[in-house]
Amino acid sequence: MKQAKTKQVLVAGGAGFLGSHLCEALLAEGAKVWCLDNLQTGQRRTLRKLEQDPNFTFIEGDVIDPLPARALPRHLDQIYNLACAASPPQYQADPEHTMLTSVLGTRNLLRLAEKHGARFLLTSTSEVYGDPEAHPQTESYRGNVNCTGPRACYDEGKRAAEALAFDFQRAGRAEVRVARIFNTYGPRMRADDGRVVSNVITQALEGLDITVYGEGSQTRSFCYVSDLIDGLMRLMQYEGPQPGPVNIGNPVELTVSDLVQQVLAMTGSRSAVVNMPLPEDDPQRRRPDIAKAEQLLGWAPRTPLTDGLRATVAWFAALQAEPEPARSTLNETRLSAG
Ligand code: NAD
Ligand code: UDP
Q1: CB 219 within 8 A of CB 196
Q2: Domain NAD-dependent epimerase/dehydratase: where (predicted)?
Q3: Which atom of ligand 1 approaches the CA of 189 most closely?
C-alpha cells in the first residue's frame, strides 16, 4: 500500500490558547508542525505536552516581521494563522501592533502560502459583526463595527485580513479558508487574560469578587475548545468550492449573569458579584448561525456548557495548586528574522 505523505503545517500563534490545542491535534494526526509565535500572549507552558515530540518545532518570531524562511521547511502543505491577541484588554494594550498583526502578519503568511502552494486558514472572529443588529449572525451579515472605537484595532484588523485573504483567493494566489470564531473557552486559557470565563472562574476559586461589566444582561455563546479545533480542521480540509467565511461557534446563548451563576454553583464559591462599568462598544448580543458549518463541514459543537465549564474549572484549580512552571525543554529554534 502507498504510504500517505506526512503533512507539513505552520501554525502562527501556536503558543496561544487555541493554537496549542491545534498543534496538539495536528501532531496527533501525524503531521509535522512548525509553531511561529512572538509569545505576546502565548505561553511556553501551554506547549509543555508537545516538548518531547520530534515532529514539533517552535520558532519565536513576530508575523509582522519578514518571516524566518531559514527555520521553515522547503515545503508547507497548510498554514493556519491564529496569531493575534484575542482578549479585549490584551489586544487593546498595543492597538497599533494588533492592527499590524492582522494586516501585515496575514499578508506575510498569505505570501508564504503562495510561495509554498499551501492552503491558508485565517482565524477571523465574530467581532467582524461588531455590536450586531442582526441576530443570530449569519455569514452574510455585514456587521456593525465602530471603526474609530477601542475595539477597532481588532475588529477592523480582522476585517482587513479577511479582505486580503479573499483577494489572494480571487487572484489565484492562494487557496484560503476563513473561520469566524465565536467566544471559545477551555483549559489553557490564561488566568490573567481578562476574558469573562477565565476571570469569573479564577475569581470564584479564589473567593474574590466576581466582576460583571454592566448589568450582566449582555449575551455570548460559548464554544468548548475541542469542538472549535475540530471545526477549524474540518474547514481546512474542506475540498468543495470556495466556501467563503464560515461561523464556528456554539449557538447556545446565555447572559453573562447566567454564566456567573453557573460558575458559582459549580465551584460552591461564596464570592460576591460586583458590577463594573460596561466597556465601550461591548456587543450586547452574540450568537452564531452555524447552518453553513453544519451543511458544508458536517460540524456542530458536541460539548454541553456544563461539561466544558467543569473541565475548565478543574484545569484552573489544578493551575492554582501548581508550583513554579517547570522549565520548558522545547525543541526550539530562536532566530533573528530573515
Ligand atoms: P491567544 O492570545 O491565546 O493566542 C494568540 C497567539 O498569537 C499567542 O500565542 C500570541 O503570543 C500570538 N501572537 C500575537 N501576535 C503575534 C504576532 N504579531 N506574531 C506572532 N505571534 C503573535 O488567543 P486565542 O484565544 O488562542 O486566539 C487565537 C486566534 O483565534 C486569534 O487570531 C483570535 O483572533 C481568534 N479568535 C479567538 C476567539 C476566542 O474566543 N478564543 C474568538 C474569535 C477569534
Ligand atoms: N465581562 C464581564 N466581566 C469580566 C470580563 C468580561 O462581565 O470580568 C463581559 C464583557 O464585558 C463582555 C463579556 O463578558 O460583555 C465577554 O467578554 P470577553 O472579554 O470574554 O469576550 P468578548 O467581549 O470579546 O466577547
Answers
A1: no
A2: 9-249
A3: 3
Is the per-residue pLDDT at 335 higher than 80? no
Is residue 311 helix, strand or coil? helix
Cα 65 from Cα 310, distance rounded (Å): 40
Annotation marks residue 154 as catalytic: yes
pTM, 2 dp: 0.96
The number of helix segments (H) and strand segments (E) in the chain equals 10, 14
Contact by Cβ (8 Å): 67, 91: no
Q: Are 332 and 58 in contact, with CB atoms under 8 Å apart?
A: yes
Question: From the CB of residue 281, how many other CB atoms can be counted at a distance below 10 Å?
Answer: 18
According to CATH, the superfamily of the domain at 8-330 is NAD(P)-binding Rossmann-like Domain (3.40.50.720)
Beta carbons of 308 and 224 less than 8 angstroms apart: yes
Minimum CA distance residue for ligand 2 atom 1: 196
- Nearest atom of ligand 2 to the alpha carbon of 87: 19
Assess contact for 180 and 246: CB atoms under 8 A.
yes
64 vs 2 pLDDT, higher one: 64
How far apart are the C-alpha atoms of 111 and 204, rounded to whole Å? 45
Nearest CA to ligand 2 atom 19: 195
